[in-house]
Design brief:
With about 600 residues, the chain is an alpha/beta fold. It has helices at about 5-10, 25-35, 50-65, 80-85, 105-115, 135-145, 165-170, 180-195, 200-210, 215-230, 235-245, 250-260, 265-275, 280-295, 310-320, 325-340, 350-365, 390-395, 450-460, 465-470, 495-510, 515-525, 540-560, 580-585, 585-595, 600-605, and strands at about 40-45, 90-95, 125-130, 150-160, 175, 200, 235, 465, 480, 530, 535-540, 570-575, 580. The strands form 4 sheets. Strands 2-3-4-1-5 form a 5-stranded parallel beta sheet, covered by helices on one side. A 4-stranded mixed beta sheet has the order 9-12-11-10, covered by helices on one side. The protein binds zinc ion.
Length: about 600
């Protein structure tokens, strides 16, 4: 530990064999040397830190080596190899085009190129960052490249192949270096750690490898930093602390909360993360990769895509079993949407919180039957419960064959939650009081904690959530008469959320082009099965609700062809989120004010004011 040399230098590969993770490239190069079929110009492309320059140097050394080993590696013993290793070789030149990009630099290079080597057969010119050459320099270089002396070999390296002009590209043998995989970086670091007597944990190295994003040079320099920070004891905890990485424990807990429908806990956890100094975006991105890891761990075929220790893999697999694929898909989608909107959002915290609420809704709206009952069935947080009599209707009206709408489509404005008070465990978010529209941002004193939470969120958003203003178009009982004429008892397909969604989507997909509006809307919606033959859809606004009201009989008939033997019924719920300042006119605003403080009215009267 005392005289610790920076790993990047000390462990720079000096044979093809020791190059990390570019096996096919190094094999091709070795074969070229072995068969004596050398090109005059090579172009090594690829991201930074993946071994382009290293390979160029090894290649240069190898072609001049006097005693190649049996497997085509440089001997590191002959005069040429030694002079190269001691950086005193006259046969190998390196030019950093980033700092020597003028036409003069290239001209002096051109002059040097003509002089044959004193030792060895070839003079090798390694031009790094070749895309940085000026246009004039490129042109000057092109002449040499067109007619190179027999002893000259050029190795050009670049991270930006697209910036190389075609005339140069066409004269080079091109090698594309790929970014180094996490597992390869980890095993390389592990080797170094073993040699240096450094204590490491696999997960710690994995974090370093992930942070360096396929760049070995970054990985090594991070590794060096961590070694000095942690006094040679690279544990997972110490590394995530120093690298400011969010612990995966958070995400395991977070997912558990979501699965259990504990929205408030999930929000508190996010708060905790913010308090630790992490950006909301980091949390969301981390959550997205957590869901992604769960997804790849839920299918044996995609298991290799998971980069982590076996122990961690088991934990992921265990949690993955509790999630349906649908939940994970949607969760990833929600998180990525949130990341996309994050930068533009003015209230970033709220954006993330809303995403968390939506995430917890996913489970609520998810179907447990798909997973074979693995995911706990939860009551929706924001959903209105259904009145019992409608359930009754369903049960007592089995599969009628007539495509008739039996009940009138009626719409009622549900003013306050208690009027519709369900015998149901769903907590109304704002349980008491006057019609909600008049008390938008007031604290909900007696509400349960969850109510608080959302009361708070809602007031931040300055919008009203659906639960309260729900124009519950509980016209529900639009009944379907299955169009098929077979007796219902035969071919009865048990409706599950999964086949309901399939039927819904299939119907949407088969709609003709002139019904794009309906089709597109249907595609982004997910019907949610309430019981055996009743489902609910949520729409964003009244207009959409009306459209679905009109179309529902037809949709139901269509769906029934995919789910024969069922007389499905649907209810439409409007999730109207209305920004308040649009809702209230002056008069309403005044009324709210008056309601809050009756003296306002007295004042108005005394001053003889009128509302304009
Ligand atoms: Zn040698």
């Amino acid at each position: 530990m005392e005289n610790y040399i920076v790993s990047a230098r000390k462990y720079r590969p000096d044979t093809f064999e020791s190059v990390v993770a570019q096996k096919s490239l190094t094999t091709t190069l070795k074969n070229a040397i072995h068969s004596g079929k050398l090109a005059h110009a090579y172009l090594f492309c690829g991201p930074r830190g993946v071994g382009k320059t290293t390979c160029a140097r090894i290649f240069a050394k190898t072609i001049n080596c006097e005693h190649l080993t049996a497997d085509g590696e440089p001997c590191n013993e002959c005069e040429s190899c030694r002079s190269f290793n001691q950086q005193r070789s006259y046969s190998i030149y390196e030019l950093d085009a980033a700092s020597n990009n003028s036409v003069e630099d290239i001209r002096s290079l051109n002059e040097q190129v003509r002089i044959p080597p004193q030792v060895g057969r070839y003079k090798v010119y390694i031009i790094d960052e070749v895309h940085m050459l000026s246009q004039a320099a490129f042109n000057a270089f092109l002449k040499t490249l067109e007619e190179p002396p027999a002893h000259a070999i050029f190795i050009l390296a670049t991270t930006e192949k697209h910036k190389i002009i075609p005339t140069i590209l066409s004269r080079c043998q091109i090698y594309d270096f790929s970014r180094i995989e996490v597992a390869d970086i980890v095993s390389h670091l592990q080797n170094i750690a073993t040699k240096e007597g450094i204590n490491t944990e696999y997960e710690a190295l994995r974090i370093i490898a992930q942070k360096s994003d396929g760049c070995m040079r970054d990985a090594l320099s991070l590794f060096d930093q961590m070694v000095s920070f942690t006094q040679g004891d690279l544990t997972y905890i110490k590394v995530i602390e120093s690298l400011n990485v969010l612990d995966y424990e958070y995400y395991f807990r977070f997912t558990d909360y979501l699965l259990a429908g504990q929205t408030s806990q999930a929000l508190l956890l996010f708060n905790d993360v913010l308090n630790k100094g992490f950006e909301g975006s980091i949390f969301v991105e981390g959550a997205a990769s957590h869901f992604r890891d769960l997804l790849v761990n839920s299918d044996p075929v995609t298991l290799p895509l998971f980069e982590g220790s076996d122990e961690l893999r088991n934990r992921y697999a265990t949690q993955a079993q509790k999630c349906t694929a649908k939940f994970l898909f949607r969760a990833i989608k929600l998180c990525s949407d949130c990341s996309m909107n994050y930068r533009a959002s003015r209230n970033k915290r709220l954006l993330v919180e809303l995403t968390i609420i939506q995430l917890s809704q996913l489970v609520a709206g998810d179907d447990s039957d798909v997973s074979g009952g693995r995911s706990p069935k939860l009551k929706p947080l924001f959903n209105k419960s259904l009145s019992n009599d409608s359930v009754q209707t369903v049960k007592t009206a089995p599969a009628s064959n007539n495509p008739v709408i039996t009940s009138q489509v009626q719409q009622q404005l549900v003013v306050a939650p208690e009027q519709n008070a369900p015998a149901n465990t769903t907590k109304p978010t704002v349980p008491h009081g006057r019609p909600q529209s008049l008390r938008p941002t007031m604290p909900t004193g007696t509400s349960p904690s969850l109510g608080h939470m959302f009361g708070g969120v809602r007031s931040m958003l300055n919008t009203k959530q659906n639960t309260t203003t729900t124009l519950e178009t509980d016209k529900a009982q639009i009944e379907n008469g299955a169009t098929n004429t077979q007796p219902v008892a035969e071919h009865k397909v048990n409706v599950t959320n999964e086949n309901l969604v399939q039927a819904w989507t299939s119907f949407a997909l088969q709609l003709p082009d002139n019904e794009r509006a309906l089709s597109d809307r249907m595609k982004i919606m997910t019907p949610h099965l309430l019981d055996d033959d009743r489902f609910e859809i949520s729409v964003d606004n009244q207009l959409a609700a009306e459209m679905f009201e009109r179309e529902m009989p037809r949709i139901l008939r269509g769906i029934a062809t995919f789910l024969p033997g069922n007389a499905l019924k649907a209810s439409i719920k409007v999730n109207e989120i209305v920004v308040e300042r649009h809702v209230y006119d002056r008069k309403k605003q005044y009324e709210i004010l008056r309601e809050k403080n009756h003296l306002v009215e007295k004042l108005r009267q005394r001053l003889n004011l009128e509302l304009s």
